[in-house]
Design goal:
Helix content: 55-70%
Shape: elongated
Structural class: alpha/beta
Number of strands: 12
Strand content: 5-15%
Distance between the termini: 104 Å
Strand order of the largest sheet: 5-4-3-6-7-8
Radius of gyration: 30 Å
């Protein structure tokens, strides 16, 4: 084995003997070998939070790292580090999904354990000078993916509130954060102003998953998504301007210099974004890019726009990629849905890796030294700053009071704040700026605090305010054929929210002509969950003629609605044994045994109709069956409290007086004398 600081060859047994008990073993685990001596600080300015005292073992900087009785070369060490980031990041995401917790909380905890606690990850040594360029590109891709989810058609309903949130609201956030940071942490006004600018961003990477879990009704969900994505480049631009003023070129300039920087950011950022979106749209529209290369070419344009704008104006690239995403999402010439699906998957990987990396750069004392002040700072942002912003931004907006209150209780910070604070802290430390090292731990305390508070309480708050229903009664119907549209129309008339999904444009057009809410696209696409408005919807009914599409739709939405609320038509033309073999892949079978799509189509073609029948003591279910005969197929029961119960093939219907039965019936033939 090689001593990391002296270069001397030693045996692992000598190291264990030289170690003293458990502490010695942990030191060997962290550094591979026990250092023969502890030199002066070798962490450097890039390793944020390193203690330069001689009493603490420094980070390993040699080309090899030893573990026990075997050693790793530099390539194996790098491979282990990169693999660890990916495995830990995706593993934390998976565990968070299973526990239904905000994923960022687990990512931060795992990154903190992997970094300063165990010493397994050392991002500055692993990536060196490439760390923050990689962070910058990754953040750009995240913002681009967020821009792809924004539809300008939503703006007439939410545009005024969004405009206020990203303008007046951003200024109020900036001011509140600046004053609080100056008073609580005793930061000078320049550094406090920079921190306030960084904390303007609200974190779409955490708002998106929270909204998918809560599924709020009304317009508040759209408002929060727009705010979270649009505010990010605005916050970054504000931070750049403050940095220019206190530590960059602005220290030699004037107010005119800052105004020029804003103009250049808008021109270069917006220009590069629009040009990149236009070129990519043209190439796809002209079929000049093979289908299998479209996602890769899109990635190329994003990186090119980000880099080009940044070279002409610092941090203008984030505005460029956001504009590019919005422009692509709202053009009508090229189909980009498969690009959106690729970017969604890439976003999960990037967020997981970035939070692990940035959390691994922290040191425990960075957080513990400011823990009390950090708690007070988070309380000011949550209890004073955000409610004030929500109140000001929604004046005369017409937004219902309960939605305004929910808006006041949702402002988590995410990856952009973490990345930007890390970059500027490093630059200010290089310039010798006092207390610059506090930027990162304060920002991370805000991220941890806001994600914990909003992530753990917002579902309850949404339910208490009536913004979201803990037991939503709406139905997502997959398949918009004629009889499915008739069923959706009847449920819609009874006051239940319905959403019809189909990739057949003729079916969607017919549904829209009938006044029904629709979504045109594949139910299996990754982006579908993000794009569909699922507020008030709590069940899935898969009604397509394709049994495997129905089964896959059920699998796709089990994580959204739960397996008990996912239904599909019974499979067609399969032996009973084979049906049972595949039953674990399917949802609950609808209505009655044998009610396949073919059978339902046959019945409707033969004149069957949908009927909603209120039951009473005088005309109960037995009388209903006597009147319409054994050919009746009960479909749903509406309880007296307005709850909708779906009838399944494995459970017979027993509606009671006072309830309403929705069924498929053949009107009984009356005798000729009665018809005359």
């Amino acid at each position: 084995m090689v001593d990391l600081y002296t270069g001397e060859s030693r045996f692992a047994e000598e190291k264990f003997q030289a170690s003293t008990g458990l502490l010695g073993f942990l030191e060997i685990f962290r550094y591979g070998v026990r250092p023969a001596r502890r030199p002066a600080a070798t962490c450097g300015i890039a390793a944020l939070g390193c203690d330069n005292s001689a009493g603490e073992a420094p980070a390993a900087t040699a080309s090899a790292k030893a573990f026990g009785s075997w050693s790793l070369g530099v390539h194996e060490t790098a491979l282990l580090g990169i693999a660890g980031i990916i495995v830990l990041g995706i593993g934390a995401q998976l565990l968070a999904a299973r526990l239904r917790l905000p994923s960022i909380l687990l990512l931060l905890i795992v990154g903190f354990i992997a970094g300063p606690v165990t010493g397994f990850l050392r991002p500055d040594e692993l990536f060196g000078d490439l760390l923050f360029p990689l962070v910058s590109v990754s953040v750009g891709l995240i913002l681009y993916e967020g821009g792809l989810s924004l539809k300008l058609s939503d703006l007439p309903k939410v545009g005024g509130v969004v405009r206020n949130l990203v303008s007046v609201g951003a200024l109020v956030t900036w001011a509140v954060s600046t004053v609080a940071a100056h008073l609580i942490f005793d930061l000078d006004l320049g550094l406090a102003t920079l921190l306030g600018a960084v904390l303007v961003v609200t974190g779409p990477t955490v708002i998106g998953p929270m909204l998918r879990h809560i599924r709020p009704g009304g317009s508040v969900g759209q408002v929060l998504m727009w705010e979270g994505i649009v505010i990010d480049p605005i916050g970054v631009v504000l931070a750049v301007l403050v940095f220019e003023a206190i530590g960059g070129a602005g220290q030699h300039g004037t107010t005119a210099h800052l105004i020029l920087a804003v103009i250049k950011t808008i021109i270069f950022g917006g220009g590069f974004g629009l040009i990149a979106a236009g070129l990519l749209t043209l190439l796809i529209y002209r079929y000049w890019i093979p289908d299998f290369l479209q996602s890769a070419v899109s990635l190329m344009f994003v990186v090119a726009a980000l880099t080009g704008a940044n070279l002409l104006q610092s941090e203008a690239g984030l505005l460029a990629v956001t504009v590019m995403g919005i422009a692509l999402a709202n053009q009508k010439y090229a189909d980009i849905k498969h690009i959106v699906e690729f970017k969604e998957n890439l976003r999960v990987l990037l967020i997981s890796s970035l939070f692990i990396l940035l959390a691994a750069r922290l040191q425990p004392r960075d957080l513990t030294d400011i823990a009390a002040g950090g708690a007070l700072f988070v309380a000011v942002l949550v209890l004073v700053g955000r409610p004030l912003i929500a109140f000001i931004s929604t004046i005369r907006s017409g937004m219902p009071r309960n939605e305004r209150l929910f808006l006041a209780w949702m402002a988590p910070r995410g990856i952009v704040a973490a990345a930007v604070s890390s970059v500027f802290a490093l630059r200010l430390q290089e310039l010798g700026y006092a207390n610059a090292e506090l930027l990162v731990p304060i920002t991370f305390i805000v991220i941890i605090g806001t994600v914990a508070i909003y992530g753990l309480t917002s579902p309850t708050v949404a339910f208490r305010l009536g913004v979201a229903d803990p037991n939503p009664q709406g139905i997502l119907l997959v398949g918009a054929r004629g009889w499915a549209r008739a069923l959706a129309s009847l449920l819609h008339e009874k006051g239940f929210r319905v959403l019809l999904v189909d990739s057949n444009r003729d079916n969607i057009a017919a549904a829209r002509m009938a006044g029904l809410p629709t979504y045109s696209g594949s139910i299996l696409a990754e982006y579908a969950i993000t794009e569909m408005r699922l507020g008030g919807i709590g069940r899935l009914l898969a009604l397509t003629p394709n049994d495997w599409v129905n089964a896959l739709a059920v699998q796709r939405f089990t994580s959204v609605f739960g397996r008990a609320a996912c239904y599909q038509l019974p499979p067609q033309n399969e032996p009973k044994g084979k049906q049972e073999l595949h039953k674990h892949l399917q949802g609950r079978w609808l209505f009655a045994p044998g009610m396949t799509n073919v059978e339902l189509e046959r019945r409707f073609a033969a004149g069957a109709t949908l009927k909603a029948t209120p039951l009473s003591d005088e005309f109960d279910f037995a009388a209903f069956m006597l009147h319409y005969g054994e050919s009746v197929v009960p479909l749903f029961v509406i309880a007296e409290n307005g709850r909708l119960n779906v009838i399944t093939a494995g459970k017979s219907a027993e509606p009671q007086p006072g309830q309403t039965l929705i069924s498929l019936v053949h009107e009984p033939q009356r005798p000729p004398a009665e018809r005359s």
